[in-house]
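can u do me a favor
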């Protein structure tokens, strides 16, 4: 009953995927001290080239976007060269790969980049501390100025160009999970009173500026976006957020992106202010290619695609546990169960 997953899927005239299974972006914190992808990462991604599309672990666009140890970057020649080895291997094995472009905003920590400030829409700190580095508590961010916003937008576009230079087939802008772009989209983190805050149009402005700058640089056929209309990670919910996404999603539809991707850990979660699941809400206001994700199996994901709830299925944790996930599903072989201890090594 998983046959639908093995149908090719045409995103646009530039890109056709050989099947409907995506490897979800998965932060592994295994880049070297200069945030360059390693040989072990090259082999890890190379083993997963049977996916219709691999989305890289979140990759920072510049130094002050870093919020976790050893997350890779795409802003130095060495990082670009490291990623080129990864994409060459994935392509040699018959796969396709997008880079996920990331700035953590208020979830960044100056410890990692020896900086002074953490940049975010408003001076609203996220509670707690960096996971597994409990001595690093989160700081009150410095609200970004108009000039800093312009630089950030330019840096996303440059990182997208760097991704193409590194051989990626496209980029997924990380607009989800409470990081910088998402921080503009939610009232919990955006208290601005200028043209980037207050109204839905203003709160969506930064996201759309980044999307448009990336499209200008590499084309809409190679540009995708991940969004979390449901606040669930690094973020507190606010009923008014719904209006922001009611404005943003139709505006995105007009941009003809390669795809839109839901950012969620478990798509069974229901959000009252969205009238149900994040994926159902997005489907109701956005009519182009949608990638579903979040605690699906090949079976439940196939059912959701067949029921037209989304078009493509991203798989995260099961892909950590099973490098040969696609072959196993195809041959109906049993899967290895994921456990958090698997995060300590790259298999
Ligand atoms: C994630 N997730 C994630 N999401 C994202 O947009 N960028 C990222 O870098 C990461 N990193 C990450 C690391 C780890 C260890 C986990 C478990 C998750 C979320 C991920 O892409 C996916 O949405 C969830 O894992 C839900 O899908 P599964 O795992 O239930 O198939
Ligand atoms: C992108 C970055 C960092 C990685 C964090 C990954 C954490 C992995 C834990 C997986 C367990 C899922 C729990 C769901 C969290 C939702 C909270 C309400």
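np, heres the sequence
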């Amino acid at each position: 009953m998983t046959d639908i997953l093995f149908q090719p899927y045409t995103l646009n005239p530039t890109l056709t995927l050989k099947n409907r299974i995506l490897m979800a972006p998965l932060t592994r914190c295994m880049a070297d001290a200069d945030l360059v992808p390693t040989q072990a990462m090259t082999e890890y991604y190379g083993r997963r080239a049977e996916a219709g599309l691999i989305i890289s672990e979140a990759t920072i666009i510049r130094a002050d976007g870093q919020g976790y140890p050893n997350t890779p970057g795409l802003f130095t020649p060495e990082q670009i060269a490291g990623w080129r080895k990864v994409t060459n291997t994935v392509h040699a094995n018959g796969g396709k790969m997008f880079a996920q472009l990331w700035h953590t905003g208020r979830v960044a920590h100056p410890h990692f980049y020896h900086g002074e400030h953490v940049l975010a829409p408003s001076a609203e700190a996220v509670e707690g501390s960096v996971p597994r580095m409990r001595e690093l508590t989160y700081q009150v961010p410095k609200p970004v100025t108009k000039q800093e916003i312009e630089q950030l937008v330019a840096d996303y576009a440059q990182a997208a160009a760097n991704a193409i230079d590194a051989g990626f087939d496209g980029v997924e802008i990380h607009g989800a999970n409470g990081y910088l772009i998402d921080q503009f989209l939610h009232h919990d983190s955006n208290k601005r009173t200028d043209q980037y805050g207050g109204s839905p149009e203003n709160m969506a402005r930064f996201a759309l500026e980044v999307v448009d700058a990336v499209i200008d640089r590499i084309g809409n056929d190679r540009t995708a976006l991940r969004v979390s209309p449901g606040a669930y990670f690094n973020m507190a919910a606010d009923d008014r957020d719904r209006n922001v996404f009611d404005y943003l999603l139709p505006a995105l539809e007009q941009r003809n992106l390669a795809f839109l991707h839901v950012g969620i850990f478990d798509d069974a979660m229901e959000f009252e202010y969205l009238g149900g699941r994040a994926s159902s809400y997005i489907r109701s206001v956005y009519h182009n290619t949608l990638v579903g994700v979040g605690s699906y199996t090949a079976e439940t994901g196939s059912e959701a695609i067949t029921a037209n709830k989304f078009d493509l299925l991203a798989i995260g944790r099961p892909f950590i546990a099973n490098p040969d996930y696609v072959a196993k599903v195809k041959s109906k072989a049993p899967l290895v169960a994921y456990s958090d201890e698997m995060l300590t090594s790259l298999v």
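The chain has a mean pLDDT of 98. hope that helps!!
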